[in-house]
Design brief:
Blueprint (H helix, E strand, L loop, with lengths): L2 H6 L5 H26 L3 H10 L1 H10 L3 H20 L6 H21 L4 H10 L7 H20 L1 H9 L1 H6 L4 H23 L1 H15 L6 H26 L3 H26 L5 H18 L19 E3 L5 E5 L5 E6 L5 E6 L5 E4 L3 E5 L3 E6 L2 E5 L4 E5 L3 E7 L3 E6 L3 E6 L3 E6 H5 L10 E2 L1 E5 L2 E6 L2 E5 L5 E4 L10 E4 L2 E6 L2 E8 L2 E8 L21 E5 L5 E5 L4 E5 L6 E4 L5 E5 L4 E6 L5 E6 L14 E3 L4 E5 L4 E6 L5 E7 L6 E5 L2
Antiparallel strand pairs: 1-9, 2-3, 2-34, 3-4, 5-6, 6-7, 7-10, 8-9, 11-12, 12-13, 13-14, 15-16, 16-17, 17-18, 19-20, 20-21, 21-22, 23-24, 24-25, 26-27, 27-28, 28-29, 30-31, 31-32, 32-33
Length: about 675
C-alpha cells in the first residue's frame, strides 16, 4: 500500500475524523491543565481524580442519566474533598488524597457490582472509546477548552507564584487558596471532558506524558503548553493510524504512544546534553513542533491520495463507529409502520401497509406482508461484516416499494442479491443494489423452493434436497444429504441450517465446495413438535425454536446437538448465543431465561402488561449483543430487556401505534 494511502485512508471515514478532532481538543485541554500538574508535582492527585469519577459515572449509568454530568459531580466532590483535607495539619495532603482515592474507587466498584450489565460499559469507562465520539461530544470538548483557556490565562500569574513560592503568593495578595481551587477546577475539567476519549485509566497518560515530555525542550510555561499540545496531537494521529491498521484499541494506543513520546523526549534530551546541541529551550520546542508537523507530510511524497468508497457504503449513508440498532414495527389494526432508532429513540413514519400480518428482516430491510403484496421498508441502518472487521452505516429510513406475494416466509441478503421467499412456495430474487438505491428490481425467474444467499451462491431447499445455484439462478450442485420436508432456515457463522423432518441439515462452504451434514433429533419427533422457525442472535451459532406445546428446542450448531427444554407452551423464543440464555415468553406475559445446554431456569420476569389475547399476533423476542426487545402491543410499547441482569427491563419505549409486528435491523 502506498504511504500516502496508508496515512490518509483511515481519516476518510467520518467516525475517525471525529476521533481525530476529539483527540486534538483533548490534547489542547490536557496541555493547559497538565502542564501545571507536572510543574506542581500533582501527578498523584491527577491519578486519584481520574479514578474518583467512577461512582458518579456508575450512578448516572444505573439511573439512565448523562455520564458527563455524573463524572463532573463525582470529580467535583473529589476536588472539594481534596481541598478540605488539604487544610488539615495533622497529616500531609498525599494522605488525604490517598484516602479519598481508595474510598471513591471502592464506592464505584460497589455500585458497579450492583448491576452485571454495567460490566461491558465499565470497559469503555476505564479504557475509553474514542471511535464512538459523536458531534455532540465534540461540542462539549470545545466548550470545555473555551472555558479552560481563559481561566488559565486569567490565573497564570497566581499559578506561577503558587507553583514556585506559595508564601510569596500570599504576600503579594494573589490568594493562593483560590488559585489552588481554580487549578483543581482546571484539572477536573480536563479529566471529565477527556475520560470518554481515553478512559479514566488512560486519561492520566495524556494529562501527564505530553507536558512532561515538553519540559525537556522548553523552559517557559507557555512554550511547554504549546509543545505538550503538539505532542498530544501527534500521539492522537499516530494512535489512530496504528489502531486502524493493527486493529488495536484506539484510546489505549493513543495513551501508549503519548508515553512512548515521553521516553523518546527523555532519550533525545540526554543525547542533546551529551553532544551539547546549541539553542535555547524555546527554540528546541519550536524545532520539535516543526519536526512533528512538517516532516511526516514531507516524507509522504507528492502522490495524490485516492478516494476509496468503504465496503458496503451507499450514497447518502454515514459510516459510524458502532452498531445503529433500529426496530421496524407495524400496527396490524391500522397498518401504520414506524422505524424506531434505539439510540436516540427517534421514531420515523414510513407509511402504511393494508392488512399487515407478518414482518421479517435481513439486517437492513424489513419485509411486511400485506394484502396481496410484500411491502419493503429501508430501516436506514445496517452493517457489513468482513470477518476481521465490521462496517456500520446509518441513513434516512424510507419506504422502498412492493413485490407481489402472499406471505414472507424468509428474507436474507448479501451485498448483491436479496432473496424473498413467498407463500406460494417459490422465491423471488431482488437486486440488492436496486434496493440500496430505493427501487425494487427482480432478477431472473422465480426459483422453486426457499432460497438463501450464502457464500456468493444461493441455497434452494425444495422437496427433499438442497440445491446450490449461482446468484442468477444457474445450477451448480446438489447437497447429497437429504432434507425431508424442509421448513425453517437460519444463516450462522458456521453455515446455513435448514429444518428437516428428522432434524436439521447444516450446509457449509469451503474453497468453493459445499457439503451438508445432518444433525438428527435425539429421538423421534412428531410433526407438531418439529423446529420449523429458528430464532437466534445474528452471528450466533445457538438457535432456538418452539417445540409445539412441549416447550422449546435449542440447537448448538458448533457441537451439533439438540436440547429439548420441556417448559410447556411458549409464544416466542430466541437464543442469545454462546454463554447466554435461551429466552422464552409464555402466554401469561412472563419472560423466562434458561440455560441453553441444560435447560435449567435462570430467571423470570413479567414484561407484558397483560396476558396475550387469543387470535392476536403473538409478540416476538429480538436479540442483539447487549439487549433483547419484546413488543407489547397492549400498551403501545417496546420493552428493552437486559438479559445479563436477571431479565431487568432497562427501558420502555412508548409509541403512538400498537407494535403488533416487530423486527430489528442494523446488527
Amino acid at each position: 500500500m502506498p504511504l500516502v494511502e496508508w496515512l490518509l485512508t483511515p481519516f476518510e471515514v467520518s467516525f475517525v475524523q471525529r476521533a481525530l478532532w476529539a483527540g486534538v481538543l483533548v490534547s489542547c485541554l490536557c496541555a493547559v491543565a497538565g502542564t501545571w500538574v507536572v510543574l506542581r508535582g500533582m501527578a498523584f492527585l491527577g491519578d486519584a481524580m481520574s479514578h474518583g469519577m467512577l461512582p458518579g459515572v456508575a450512578i448516572a449509568s444505573l439511573l439512565g442519566g448523562n455520564l458527563f454530568l455524573g463524572a463532573a459531580a463525582s470529580a467535583g466532590a473529589m476536588a472539594f474533598g481534596v481541598t478540605a483535607l488539604g487544610r488539615s495539619r495533622r497529616f500531609s495532603q498525599d494522605t488525604g488524597i490517598g484516602l479519598l482515592f481508595v474510598g471513591m474507587l471502592a464506592l464505584g466498584v460497589i455500585l458497579v457490582s450492583h448491576s452485571e450489565s454495567f460490566a461491558v460499559d465499565l470497559t469503555a469507562f476505564l479504557f475509553g472509546d474514542v471511535l464512538a465520539v459523536r458531534a455532540r461530544d465534540l461540542g462539549y470538548l470545545a466548550v470545555a477548552l473555551a472555558v479552560a483557556a481563559p481561566a488559565a490565562l486569567w490565573g497564570h500569574r497566581a499559578f506561577v507564584a503558587l507553583t514556585f513560592d506559595p508564601r510569596k503568593a500570599q504576600t503579594l495578595g494573589m490568594r493562593p487558596r483560590l488559585a489552588h481551587a481554580v487549578l483543581l477546577g482546571l484539572v477536573t475539567l480536563a479529566i471529565v471532558a477527556s475520560f470518554q476519549v481515553v478512559g479514566t485509566l488512560l486519561v492520566f497518560g495524556l494529562l501527564i506524558a505530553p507536558p512532561a515530555a515538553a519540559t525537556y525542550w522548553a523552559r517557559r510555561i507557555p512554550t511547554i503548553m504549546l509543545g505538550a499540545a503538539v505532542l498530544g496531537v501527534t500521539a492522537t494521529v499516530a494512535g489512530l493510524l496504528v489502531s486502524w491498521h493493527a486493529g488495536t484499541a484506539a484510546g489505549a494506543t493513543i495513551a501508549l504512544i503519548a508515553v512512548v513520546l515521553f521516553f523518546l523526549s527523555a532519550l533525545g534530551a540526554r543525547v542533546r546534553d551529551r553532544v551539547r546541541l546549541p539553542g535555547a529551550g524555546g527554540q528546541h520546542a519550536v524545532l520539535l513542533a516543526v519536526l512533528v508537523v512538517v516532516l511526516p507530510p514531507a516524507g509522504c511524497g507528492t502522490e495524490p491520495a485516492r478516494e476509496e468508497v468503504p465496503h458496503g457504503y451507499v450514497e447518502g449513508a454515514e459510516e459510524t463507529a458502532e452498531a445503529q440498532p433500529r426496530l421496524v414495527v407495524a400496527d396490524d389494526r391500522t397498518g401504520a409502520v414506524r422505524v424506531v432508532d434505539l439510540i436516540t429513540e427517534e421514531v420515523t413514519d414510513v407509511g402504511r401497509v393494508d392488512g399487515v400480518r407478518a414482518i421479517t428482516g435481513d439486517g437492513r430491510f424489513a419485509y411486511l406482508t400485506g394484502a396481496g403484496s410484500v411491502r419493503i421498508v429501508d430501516s436506514g441502518a445496517w452493517m457489513v461484516d468482513h470477518g476481521d472487521h465490521v462496517h456500520y452505516y446509518r441513513a434516512r429510513a424510507r419506504e422502498v416499494g412492493s413485490v407481489p406475494g402472499d406471505a414472507v416466509v424468509n428474507a436474507d441478503s448479501d451485498p448483491t442479491v436479496a432473496a424473498v421467499a413467498l407463500g406460494r412456495g417459490d422465491t423471488t430474487l431482488l437486486d440488492r443494489q436496486g434496493l440500496d438505491g430505493g427501487a425494487v428490481t427482480t432478477r431472473g425467474e422465480p426459483l422453486g423452493g426457499i432460497a438463501l444467499p450464502y457464500a456468493e451462491h444461493l441455497l434452494v431447499a425444495a422437496s427433499d434436497r438442497v440445491a446450490v445455484k449461482t446468484r442468477d439462478g444457474g445450477d451448480v450442485t446438489t447437497i447429497e444429504q437429504a432434507c425431508q420436508s424442509p421448513r425453517g432456515q437460519a444463516v450462522t457463522r458456521k453455515g446455513v441450517v435448514f429444518g428437516c423432518a428428522d432434524g436439521a441439515l447444516l450446509v457449509t462452504a469451503k474453497d468453493g465446495s459445499f457439503t451438508g451434514e445432518k444433525i438428527p433429533y435425539p429421538r423421534a419427533v412428531p410433526e407438531a413438535e418439529r423446529a420449523v422457525e429458528f430464532r437466534h442472535r445474528p452471528g450466533s451459532t445457538t438457535l432456538a425454536a418452539r417445540a409445539g406445546d412441549l416447550g422449546a428446542w435449542a440447537l448448538d450448531v458448533r457441537a451439533k446437538t439438540w436440547t429439548l427444554l420441556p417448559i410447556g407452551p411458549v409464544v416466542a423464543v430466541n437464543a442469545v448465543g454462546e454463554a447466554g440464555p435461551l429466552l422464552a415468553l409464555t402466554a401469561d406475559g412472563v419472560l423466562h431465561g434458561y440455560d441453553a445446554k441444560s435447560g435449567t431456569p435462570i430467571a423470570q420476569r413479567r414484561v407484558l402488561s397483560a396476558p396475550i389475547a387469543e387470535g392476536g399476533a403473538p409478540p416476538v423476542i429480538e436479540v442483539d449483543p447487549n439487549r433483547a426487545y419484546v413488543n407489547d402491543a397492549g400498551v403501545r410499547a417496546v420493552h428493552e430487556i437486559d438479559y445479563n441482569d436477571g431479565l431487568r427491563v432497562a427501558r420502555t419505549i412508548r409509541l403512538e401505534i400498537e407494535p403488533a409486528h416487530m423486527v430489528e435491523t442494523g446488527r
